[in-house]
Design goal:
alpha/beta, elongated, P-loop_NTPase, 15 strands, five-stranded parallel β-sheet, five-stranded antiparallel β-sheet
Length: 649
């Protein structure tokens, strides 16, 4: 549904067994809706129901219920969330408005317990909150991929550099071979001329010479064959050398790669599973505590439906139930029926609230531990994959080495057979020799040797020329590789600076929006709240790294009109609450939350006076399609009377 369609549509909400609500069905108009009333009147439960419909898990089942649900209809679209208690946990289901509610939980659902609001008072890492919606992990993955690509190109360029150094040597070798071939061709031509001249003088002996020529031809062929076998043996040996070099490099890589201890990944997965289970247990406890706290607050304030019914019955009977239940400072305990001091129950509530905060803090710590463990698991898995790849390649090398060694043995056996055939042919040639034909045989033998030598030289020249052509072809690619490396370096630099740029832009926008919100609130002694981005060396595991830190600064104005900087720790509780709220509201604006989240909810604004609340509501009414704000009666009086009022109690 488009933002324009949402802004023109009513929304209808149906709630069952959420927080302190048994059953509720209501509709709201687009724009601002004011939930006016005292505390403990289920206003927060209504806000949490809206949040639950969007996908938030910051919601509790009613204490005495095993199932609950929320249904939100905007225009023609209906979204449903269901909740079911299973043991100590609550399982959620259904189709919410948002696939990922994290951004809304941070900057759109601004209850008292909102992380962004509480971050200032707790001194949390503001950078984590501000940058959480930014996909920094994707940028880091791109950097890692480009770094690997750059290393691959560097290896190729290093190989090309070695080839370039070899090229002059090969060219000198080519020139030398060409000279040798030319000399051998001249010698062979002279020798063939001598044979022709000799043949002309002894033509009558052609029959003997024909047999001799045949044997000499066979001898030349066998020598060419043995030369070919020698070349093939040399090729196999070179391949073996290359395999051994690769094997040594892989062995070095294995030594540099820390071995993953057996079962380490399983241990981490087990710990992750344990922490997730623990988080669910803690969240369930938090939900139960919230229900207990809310129920007791309602009972204590007299807004519980049971108390209201009792008061109504007493009025009908002409009695005064309040007088029957309460003394000056006494109240009848609704759990045991005895009279206790009201202050004791209030003290118990404070301890329960403190316990809830402790559980929330524990949950946050578990979340951080989970993140660290998942990073550690990813590192171990990456190392294990690399080790497995190396071991597979080493196994392939071993198999290939055995195959090539077998080929070498086969070629050596073939060469031995050829040597035997050559010896036999040479013996036959020797037998055909006679005193009369000795000179002729010598000439043929010399010519035969020259042909053999010339063939080897031509083969060597062909190999050298092929190698030179291959090197020149590869060197032609060097400019492209260097250009590609420069492009990667530029891209890496852009990616490395992008995160810093995003951080700087985020800080700048945050400061601008916080200025705007403070202008709306018009505090005389709170001149400015701003964030400064700095870089610090911090320990991360066993090493120190440089990380960005967002420091919050508060500029105050004294009664004499003098501006000075103060720390958050020195602010009063109400000022810290205001600072946290300003920070959260700025996050809503900088991340354009209103473009994807139709609702904004506000609660616990008691730290701000009525007139400022009114201005704040008017300001954000221009952004949110639906702005639902919970206010005390006296604060609600200051808000524009045209905004519809609603009381869930």
């Amino acid at each position: 549904m488009s933002s324009e369609q949402v802004s023109k549509s009513k929304f209808h909400l149906s709630v069952e067994n959420i927080g302190g609500i048994d059953n509720l069905s209501t509709s709201f108009e687009p724009g601002v809706t004011v939930l006016a009333g005292r505390n403990a009147t289920n206003r927060t439960s209504l806000l949490r129901s809206i949040m639950a419909a969007h996908g938030s898990d910051d919601v509790a089942l009613k204490g005495d219920a095993d199932e609950g649900s929320v249904e939100l209809t905007i225009g023609d679209e209906t979204y449903t969330r269901t909740f079911e208690r299973q043991g100590d946990t609550v399982i959620s289901g259904g189709e919410p408005v948002l696939d990922d509610p994290d951004l809304a939980d941070l900057f759109s659902f601004l209850l008292e317990t909102n992380d962004a609001r509480q971050a200032v008072a707790r001194g949390d890492d503001l950078r984590d909150l501000i940058m959480r919606p930014v996909d920094v992990e994707s940028i880091n993955e791109q950097i890692e991929s480009l770094q690997q690509e750059k290393r691959d190109i560097a290896d190729e360029l290093s190989t090309l550099s070695n080839l370039s150094d070899r090229l002059p040597q090969l060219e000198r070798r080519r020139t030398k071979l060409e000279d040798q071939i030319e000399e051998k061709e001249d010698e062979l031509a002279e020798k063939e001329q001598e044979v022709e001249e000799y043949d002309a003088s002894v033509s009558e002996r052609q029959e003997v010479e024909s047999e001799l020529e045949s044997k000499l031809g066979d001898l030349r062929s066998k020598r060419r064959d043995i030369n070919d076998v020698d070349r093939r043996i040399e090729t196999e040996k070179q391949s073996l050398d290359a395999l051994e070099s690769e094997e040594e490099e892989l062995a070095d890589d294995t030594e540099d790669l820390p071995e993953v201890a057996g079962g380490k990944i399983d241990e981490i997965e087990s710990e992750i599973s344990r922490l997730r289970t623990r988080r669910q247990e803690i969240q369930s406890t938090v939900n139960e505590l919230q229900s207990v706290i809310q129920f007791n607050e309602e009972m204590l304030s007299g807004t519980s439906s049971d108390v209201v019914d009792a008061l109504r019955d007493a009025d009908d009977a002409g009695g005064n139930v309040t007088d029957q239940l309460l003394g000056d400072d006494q109240v009848v305990c609704w759990t045991c029926g005895s009279e206790v001091d009201k202050s004791e129950i209030e003290g118990t509530l404070e301890r329960l609230q403190s316990l809830r905060e402790e559980k929330l803090e524990a949950n946050r710590e578990h979340r951080e531990q989970l993140s660290e463990l998942e990073d550690e698991k990813s590192t171990y898995e990456r190392r294990q994959r690399e080790r497995d790849r190396i071991e597979r390649r080493l196994s392939e090398i071993e198999s290939e080495r055995e195959t090539r060694q077998e080929r070498i043995e086969e070629l050596k056996s073939e060469r031995s057979d050829l040597e035997a055939e050559i010896d036999s042919l040479e013996q036959t040639v020797d037998e055909l020799e006679s005193e009369e034909h000795g000179d002729l045989l010598d000439l043929h033998r010399e010519a035969n040797q020259l042909e053999y030598d010339l063939g080897r030289l031509r083969t060597d020249l062909e190999d050298v020329e092929d190698e030179i052509a291959d090197i020149e072809r590869k060197l032609d690619e060097r400019d492209e590789l260097e250009a590609a490396r420069e492009d990667i370096e530029d891209e890496l630099e852009e990616l490395r600076t992008r995160i810093k740029r995003l951080e700087s832009e985020a800080v700048e926008e945050f400061n601008s929006h916080m200025d705007d919100v403070l202008d709306v609130l018009e505090y005389d002694n709170l001149e400015r709240i701003w964030i400064e981005r700095t870089e610090k060396r911090v320990r991360e595991g066993r090493r120190k790294v440089t990380k960005s830190v967002f420091d919050l600064h508060v500029i105050r104005t004294s009664e004499d009109g003098v501006s000075y900087e103060d720390s958050v720790a020195h602010l009063s509780e109400s000022e810290r609450e205001v600072t946290g709220l300003v920070f959260a509201l700025a996050g809503y604006l900088i991340h354009d939350v209103y473009e994807t989240v139709p609702f904004m909810v506000l609660d616990s604004l008691e730290a701000i006076d009525s007139n400022r609340i009114s201005r704040l509501v008017d300001y954000f009414a221009d952004y949110a399609d639906f702005l639902v704000v919970a206010l005390l009666e006296e604060d609600a009086q200051a808000v524009d009377s045209s905004y519809p009022r609603y009381s869930p109690a």
